[in-house]
Design a protein that fits this description.
elongated
Length: 149
């Protein structure tokens, strides 16, 4: 005869095993993460950043808060101007937050300074494509054409 189940049988009454993960208070964790972000960047700015994160996708709001909080805790605190621009952006996510901070840090290392024209034009300030704005514009070459004579 061949044994299929070599383990010992349990005797006695069965026990219910509960996964306590389902019973935790998720609102407390969200409030703690919002407070951590507000402590890093300031109350008003923290509230506006959290509002943008919630508006982008409410289903994953807690995950977005955790990621942004981790980004702010691990790296240097960004300049308030950078955070102000991020707080005004619609569709803000933790990934976009991180990419924007990295792009800003790289731009500062290259020596790029924010200019007044970009500050006046919010569309250009968001895209950062000022260098390409003049492409295709005639500059003193009015006599030159690319059509056959």
């Amino acid at each position: 005869m061949r044994l299929w189940l070599p383990h010992a049988l349990a005797t006695g009454k069965g026990q219910t095993v509960r996964n306590t993960h389902h019973y935790r208070d998720r609102t407390r964790q969200v409030e703690e993460l919002e407070a951590a972000i507000a402590a890093c960047v300031g109350t008003d700015l923290g509230v506006r950043l959290c509002t943008q994160l919630r508006a982008s996708d409410p289903r994953i709001y807690r995950d977005q808060l955790a990621a942004v909080s981790r980004i702010l805790e691990t790296g240097p605190v960004p300049a308030s101007e950078v955070l102000e621009r991020l707080a005004e952006r619609e569709g803000l996510t933790a990934t976009r937050f991180k990419q924007y901070l990295e792009a800003n840090r790289c731009a500062e290392q290259r020596g790029r300074e924010p200019d007044e024209e970009a500050a006046e034009s919010p569309a250009r300030a968001r895209t950062g494509l000022d260098a390409y704005a003049q492409l295709g514009q005639p500059r003193g070459h009015r006599g030159m054409t690319h059509e056959p004579a």
